[in-house]
Amino acid sequence: MQLIDDFDQCVDQTANFDNFYDLIWNVATAQGMGLDIWGRIVGVSRVIQLSGTQVYFGFEEATPGPLGFNSGVVFYAGGSSTTNFALADAPYRVLILAKALSNITDGSMRSINAILSALFPGRGNAYCTNGLDMTMTLHFNFSLTPVELAIIEQSGAIPIPVGVSFTVVQT
């Protein structure tokens, strides 16, 4: 019996099961690869494509369309190599949960507003309105970052009905 007890202690997998549950299975505590797995399950990618152009500041002859010092976003360092942006774990977790809600929603205005509230908690009013002409408007009473705008436009976390076009309005 002692031999069996010693073997059981040597191959005890309790710590491994706890780590698996915390780092992969539980979406609230998952990290890195665990969130990537959850992203594949719900159908949303960690990497999003940023659109639009950056506003550079600096000397006019050195930059494409500069605004002058203290007005732009970043120094111009030549052409960008990519417009891909990988989300960190915390915002990716919120996106995964919003996409999961989008996957099971009925597509009503009420559920779209709930998803917008989940994506932007404590930021201000975010809501959608029906144009009654196959259009929908997403209103944000705060400024969206380029990453947040890309999430709204590309991730599929907001269920836009088929044949309906949508616009984003920021105030």
Q: Can you describe this structure?
A:
The protein has 171 residues and is an alpha+beta fold. Helices cover 39% and strands 13% of the residues. The protein is built from six helices and five strands; from the N terminus they run αααββααββαβ. The protein has a three-stranded mixed β-sheet, with helices on one face. Strands 1-2 form a two-stranded antiparallel sheet. Strand 3 and strand 4 (135-140) form a beta hairpin. Helix 3 (33-42) runs parallel beside helix 4 and helix 4 (89-104) runs antiparallel to helix 5 (109-119).
Q: How much of the sequence is in beta strands?
A: 5-15%
Numbering strands along the chain, what is their spatial order in the largest sheet?
A: 3-4-5
Determine Rg (CA atoms, Å).
22 Å
Question: DSSP helix count?
Answer: 6
Number of strands: 5
Element order, helices and strands?
A: HHHEEHHEEHE
Classification by helices and strands: alpha+beta
How much helical structure, as a percent, in the residues? Answer: 25-40%
Low-confidence stretches: 60-72
* Quaternary structure state of the chains depicted: single chain
* Shape designation: elongated
Query: Main β-sheet, in a few words?
Result: 3 strands, mixed
User: Would you tell me the overall average pLDDT?
Assistant: 83
Kindly report how far apart the N and C termini lie: 73 Å
